[in-house]
Design brief:
The protein has about 240 residues and is α/β, with parallel strands linked by helices. The protein has two domains: about 120 residues, Cobalt-precorrin-4 Transmethylase, domain 1, CATH 3.40.1010; about 110 residues, Methyltransferase, Cobalt-precorrin-4 Transmethylase, Domain 2, CATH 3.30.950. The protein has nine helices and ten strands. It starts with a strand and ends with a strand.
Length: about 240
């Protein structure tokens, strides 16, 4: 009989206490596991140590599933212990695994083998920004990373704007933290004045920033403090 895969959330903001943002009920599951499929071994070990799990960290087995895992054979190898009866925990670098995260690949393969998948409760920046943005929570889309180079970047922004207006659907996207300010300036120059733009940085941290303004209002404001901070953007009407 195969084991179970547990999707284990971790804090979004690394500086915060684990159990300030996660339900303590997750600890029982974490204590039962000795095999983890993770986006980054170092951050996963740090998270489990801060969580205060019962097992010694050095006794646990970690395999990495990230952008460098390109071979289906590698993913099949990671799943093999689960098929042999060993349960596993999947951990992202931040937030919930499997959403905007390579953990989805192991889950897709597990489904094909009939393996049970159990998602645990935890913080998702996508859902949390929607909760706090005032944008359309009835219809929204996560678009991943925005294009980096022009003119593709501006075309993508205008395309997201059209979808927001025509479909009344909030459009969510992210950027590498060191390019946040440049993206914000491009958004202010490219979007229509009445479009509402939400900027959210370091969600769940003590210095969390979540602000929604129209583009014309943002043009009258200073650039928010988002340089090199994990930030998520939402545009809507």
């Amino acid at each position: 009989m195969s084991g179970t895969i547990y999707m284990i959330p971790c804090p979004i903001a690394d500086s915060e206490s684990v159990w300030d943002v996660l339900p303590k009920a997750n600890l029982e599951v974490m204590n039962s596991l000795d095999y983890f499929i993770v986006e980054n071994t170092r951050s996963a070990r740090r998270f489990l140590s801060k969580a205060g799990i019962e097992r010694k960290i050095d006794e646990l087995e970690f395999v990495e599933l990230n952008e460098h895992t390109v071979s289906p054979h590698d993913i099949e190898r990671m799943l093999r212990p689960v098929l042999e009866g060993r349960s596993a925990g999947v951990i992202s670098e931040a937030g919930v695994p499997g959403v905007a995260d390579p953990g989805a690949d192991i889950v897709a393969l597990a489904h094909r083998h009939g393996v049970r998948i159990v998602p645990l409760v935890g913080p998702s920046s996508i859902l949390m920004v929607m909760m706090a943005s005032g944008q359309n929570g009835q219809s929204f889309a996560f678009n991943g990373y925005i294009a980096v180079k022009e003119p593709e970047r501006s075309r993508m922004i205008k395309s997201l704007e059209r979808r927001a207006v025509q479909e009344r659907q909030a459009q969510i996207f992210i950027e590498a933290p060191y390019r946040n300010v440049k993206l914000f300036d491009t958004l202010r120059r490219t979007l229509s004045p009445k479009i509402r733009l939400t900027v959210a940085a370091d969600i769940t941290a003590k210095d969390e920033l979540i602000v929604t303004r129209t583009v014309e209002e943002w043009l009258r404001c200073e650039v928010p403090n988002i340089e090199k901070r994990p930030t998520i953007f939402v545009l809507g009407i």
